[in-house]
Structure formats: structure tokens, C-alpha cells
Amino acid sequence: MDVPAPATASRSILVVEDEAIIAMMLEEYLQALGHSLCGVATSLDEANALIGEKGGAIDLAILDCHLGEEEVWPVADRLAEMGVPIILSSGGSISSLPPRYARCAMLHKPYTISALTDLLAGFFDPA
């Protein structure tokens, strides 16, 4: 894996992803880029618990649009209300994407470290 240079400042990132292997891959990518995970949630309940616990320590969230039979929108809404930037992810159709998230950054599966690097740069690199 070609790893881009680490981030200039480490950020704490929440990952909401129901597939363990994908969550582990994201964790590896984020750590290689100099960031840390403030937590990984596999369901809406877990995500809400982590948000309640970590609160203001979340610098960004990467949210899988579909968590099994659940959609991530209640968690996305809560994070948006808190001012936490969001990257949405999906490996399939996003036909149920609410209009309020139409302009949200999107990370498509299968993920690559370069795609993740590019998206994170849009949030964290001073320009």
C-alpha cells in the first residue's frame, strides 16, 4: 500500500460502519495518515452512545449510509447539529440519500487510501 504523508495534525474520527473488515481497513488507513479513531460503531445505537460519550472530541465522522436494515440519517442529523463534518460512504445505491445530504462528501466502496486522503484534505488542510 502506497501511504501518503501523514496529516499535519492528528484528528479524532468516528467511523460508523457495520462491516468489521471495512472498519478495520478504515482504521488502518486513518492511522497511516496520522489520525486516530475516537470509536467505531456498527449500529445507530452504538453510534449514538459514542457521540454521547465523546461529544466535542469528534473532529469528523465517516458514516456508512446503510447499517444492515438501518439507515444512518438520524446519526448524521445529530452530528450535523453538533457541527461535526461528515463523509458519507456507500458500496451500493444511495437512492435514499436525503436532499439535505446531497452535497455531502462521499467515499465509495471499495475504499482506497488515496481517495480517503483526498477527502480528508478537503476538511483539514489549510488552503
CATH architecture, by name, is: 3-Layer(aba) Sandwich
The CATH class is identified as Alpha Beta
Order of helices and strands: EHEHEEEHEEH
The count of helical stretches stands at 4
**Alpha-carbon distance between the termini?**
27 Å
Q: Tell me the strand percentage band.
A: 15-25%
CATH fold category name: Rossmann fold
Q: How many domains would you count in the coordinates?
A: 1
Helix content: 25-40%
What's the overall geometry?
Answer: globular
Q: What is the name of the CATH superfamily? A: Response regulator
Mean pLDDT: 88
- Low-confidence segments, ≥5 residues, pLDDT <50? none
Beta-strand segment tally: 7
Q: What structural class results from the helix and strand content?
A: alpha/beta
Structure, explained:
This protein has 127 residues and is an alpha/beta fold. The protein has a single domain (12-122), classed as 3-Layer(aba) Sandwich (Rossmann fold), CATH 3.40.50.2300. It has helices at 20-32, 44-54, 73-82, 113-124, and strands at residues 12-16, 36-41, 60-64, 66-67, 70-71, 86-90, 105-108. Helix 2 (44-54) runs parallel beside helix 3. The chain is globular, with a radius of gyration of 13 Å. The model has no long low-confidence stretch (mean pLDDT 88).
Short précis:
With 127 residues, the chain is an alpha/beta fold. The protein has helices at residues 20-32, 44-54, 73-82, 113-124, and strands at 12-16, 36-41, 60-64, 66-67, 70-71, 86-90, 105-108.
SSE layout and pairings?
Blueprint lengths: L11 E5 L3 H13 L3 E6 L2 H11 L5 E5 L1 E2 L2 E2 L1 H10 L3 E5 L14 E4 L4 H12 L3
Parallel strand pairs: 1-2, 1-3, 3-6, 6-7
Antiparallel strand pairs: 4-5
Helix pairs in contact: 2-3
